[in-house]
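Appendix B. Extra example for self-study. Work through it before the problem class; the solution is given directly after the inputs so you can check yourself.
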Amino acid sequence: METTAPPLNYLNNGHTIASWLLTKDHKRIALLYLVSITFFFFLGGFFALLVRLELLTPAADLLEPDMYNRMFTMHGIVMVFFFLIPSIPAVLGNFLIPIMIGAKDLAFPRINLLSWYIYVLGGIFTILAALLGGVDTGWTFYAPYSTSASNSNVLLAGVGIFITGFSSILTGLNFIVTVHRMRAPGLTWFRLPLFVWAHYATSLIMILGTPVIAITVLLVAVERAFHLGIFDPALGGDPVLFQHLFWFYSHPAVYIMILPAMGVVAELVQAFSRKNIFGYTFVAFSSLAIAIIGFLVWGHHLFVAGQSTYAGLVFSIISFFVAIPSAVKVFNWTATMYKGSVSWDSPMLYAFGFIGLFSIGGLTGLFLATLGMDIHMHDTYFIIAHFHYVMVGGAIFGYLGGMHYWWPKITGRMYPEGWAKFAALNVFVGFNLTFFPQFIVGYLGMPRRYAMYAPEFQIYNVLSTAGATILGVGYLIPMIYFAWSLKNAPLAGDNPWGARGLEWEIPSPPPTENFPATPIVTEGTHQYAPSREVGIV
Amino acid sequence: MSGHVAPKSMYYGVFGALMVGTALTVAAAFVDMGALNNVVMLAIAITKALLVILFFMHVRWSTRLTWVVAASGFFWLLILFGLTMQDYLTRGWVDGTWR
Amino acid sequence: MSDAPSAYQPPPVAIHPAGHGHTPHHPYLQHHFDNMEQQAEASTLGMWVFLVTEIMFFGGLFMAYLVYRWQAPLGFQEASHHLNIYWGAANTAILIVSSLTMAFAVRAAQTSQPARKQVFWLVSTMVFGAAFLGIKAIEYSDKFKDHIIPGPDFVWHGLYPKPAEQFYSLYFAMTGLHALHMVIGLGIMSVITWMAWRKTFDNEYYTPVEVAGLYWHFVDIVWIFLFPLLYLIGRHYHAAA
Amino acid sequence: MFTNFPFFPQQASEQAATIDALYFFLVAVTAFFTLLIAVLVAVFAVKFRRKHDTEVGVAIHGSLALELLWTFIPLGICMVMFVWGAQVFFHMTRAPRGAMEIHVVGKQWMWKAQHMDGAREINELHVPIGKPVKLIMGSEDVIHSFSIPDFRVKADVIPGRYNTMWFTASKPGKYHIFCTQYCGTKHSAMIGTVTAMEPADYQVWLSGGSAGGTLAEAGQKLFTDLSCNTCHMENAQGRGPVLKGLYGKQVLLASGQTVTMDDAYIRESVLNPQAKVVAGFQPIMPTFQGLVTEEQLLQIIAYVKSLK
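Solution. Structure tokens for the complete assembly:
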């Protein structure tokens, strides 16, 4: 298509393998992450497929229970640690944060590259664990099963997660320092895009929570290897302590997954309504509130684990508090569309889906924060449905929406919009068909992690598996047209959406240095119409 | 650029205080004060840590951001300790419960 | 609704000055920073943020210590009594001295003192650090000889064998992790010393020394807590007995 | 093909209805807010759909009143949920005095139950209706969780300690027992049936099941077989404390602390005797770790409890 030589950008600035594997450019590192994360997404999806197929019938006929246990464990480990946690921050965050704040790069480009290598190393250990027979502890690694009873590759997988944790820590560290120290002149905190706020909050969780899971997994590994009595009661340990330490990270970790998606959706709603966000400060601070309060609620995973009644009450009430900033966000996104100029481009379809599905995911979370209700629902499919509404309906919808929104910026090419709309619809329908029945079968009492189940649960499992098939197809379509678009789609231009933001003022794909010189920011984000004060901020 | 340069005498002073603290804590350990032993021990340790942070690590002369970052680490540690211990310490408070 | 990009182009949010308009670069300024000040602030902030993660990393172990000591206070006191308080106290003093020499190394760079002075303080710090590890090695080998390494070979003649084993599990986990940090610290120091020797640091550029110093002091602080928590808790119990 | 298309589990315990009421309230709130948001999004998307390519939205920066509204209304609703849920929870965690006790031991991958009068069963649990039943549960290996969905009850079964839960069955019939905490290969086969019976039928069932005497009697036999009685004598001459009448009382320890003589303390004292030595006694009792099973421990506890 091009007749003249294209201008120098980060993609054509060096074509050797070394120019990619040794790059310090945050945009190239983002693409390295994109490739590896996509790989892990489809790997995790493959495990999910086997899980769903096995659950088509009540008996364990496709997979032996032991193999089934390994499959759901690998699905959890791969999706949580190798897809959901790094997905938006390491790909979109890495690519966009320096551009959005008018910087040439992250504060520590070499550490950024290092974090990708650490991620890959952790991934290799985990893949090795899978190839050598998998792990059968569940992604939660509950002691003493993980430390003493399981005879699967707990050590390898634990080491993999331990290593990957450091990749997450380094990414968070880089983002925090970058946002504090690299903002362009004039870019005050309250002019920052909400995407940056969300990533800042995410980074806080990454650096404050991840070390605790690292040491916990390390202790499990040490206990397993040397038979030290840390968590196994038979050796004098306390398994509930493991759960405290584990959830101290792993509950905030769900906010690592959802907060960046919330940041994406805030950008999408503004760009495709051509309107600044309703209640900027509330949306910005709600990200911080979620990150901070999110650290105080982990005990709601221990309501039936023999925690004290008093602790149950404390964790329950704080869990309700963390719901409020999420509600504030949902209302503000919705209000932003009011009197906007709403386009129905494919990224916005994902945003619509996100708002609806995240609402369901969040509201069903209230069931689990409610002490008396959680007892019955704990460890049933209700929980599976709830967190998939947040993780898939939330995090993955945000990720896909963001990918479609920024794909023209990243690659310089558009994608076929018709196919994109079809895929978005496909994912939405498939997703709901997969996970809505699980709410019902969960309330009926079907426990999670069951290879075999009572026959009266079958109808819901059949629906679920059917939905998962549709969902899987919905994921494959974007893969195909994104790949196709790289060479064949029309050029996008600098600003295909008519959106406002620093990233849309530079060429697509951006040059290696992002900006020819440090820009001087004069306005907040997404101010389309001349300011006409209605109400107060 | 150059940050705050403290006189050498200050470093020697802090060093002396740290050494005295170490001697005190060892001496106190041999005196039976019941539960107070722990309090004294930890009070001395916290004081020593604060001296190192404030003077050797230059937080005394650093930006407010550094103060916040340094404090947040210990604050989050307290969250971990506090919320975990409020479970252990209140087991059996309500009649007929788990324990 | 089509593949065609939007014709609408909103006004920009930023002024874009044309081209590079800067003053000559300091040789150690990385290209993505505007000036040395920004670079130094980013590095120190980065190290502080990293130290926060380190606090939480050790925090998990301290949490385990807290719970198990609360569950078996007598066992922990009994077990602690088998640690050598004098080695522990000596190591505390050694680490404090190394912190002082580290602080002087930073100060030497800050005040543009000659390279050999900077190197002197850095090497002193490393010598004390190595001494600490040496003493730790003696202590470990004593424990090995006495069979109080947790695991199948653990032998305990006193009361409370279970909590004692747990205490030693935590003892080795905590001091082992701390020693690992010391080893990493020595590695960092070697690089910094080499850089100092090459006359890298002066009052314009001393961030690496300062950042390495922050790390070194942090490792010292961890020990300041480990020493009383591990070595001292059994004393008054036996002093009273 | 699917004769069963249930939406709700049966209400087979007295707690079930209260929990379902809470559930319906939560469902109603969820449905209301989900629909509210969905309708608003749909209406805005249609009504304010972009008319031409250069159209931009109106600059509206926000409204403090609205922000406060949608902060405090959800907060209020949440607090209703919290208080309601906490009430239900309090009721669920506190067994009424005089509840019938049954000991349950989980192990990979089965449930073993011991009734007080000695009847034992595996992967089955027979209970009378209309009478509060308290399960005292321990595990021999890893964490399990004992769940009866039709009763809406569940509690983790944790090695090294006892958890309890209670219910009052209200409808005769057979109901699922599921292990809901992942426990290894045959986790999904660690299931069973709870049979709720009319009290009279339950008595008939009990009389058919107990061959070896009551649980306390089995405990007494163990107490003698393991020579516990050589130190824990009936008078104060023994090297160990007299156990008679001690259950439920506060005990002063050598460390100066006090501890309640309960199931957990008896268990700890058998397995790890030196952890909490009673004041005035030497820490000379040997550990019985590995010598008694979890079921036997529960028998010993039943015996000590019976020493009134």
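Self-check: The CA atoms of residues 24 and 297 of chain D lie 42 Å apart. If your reasoning did not lead you there, revisit section 3.
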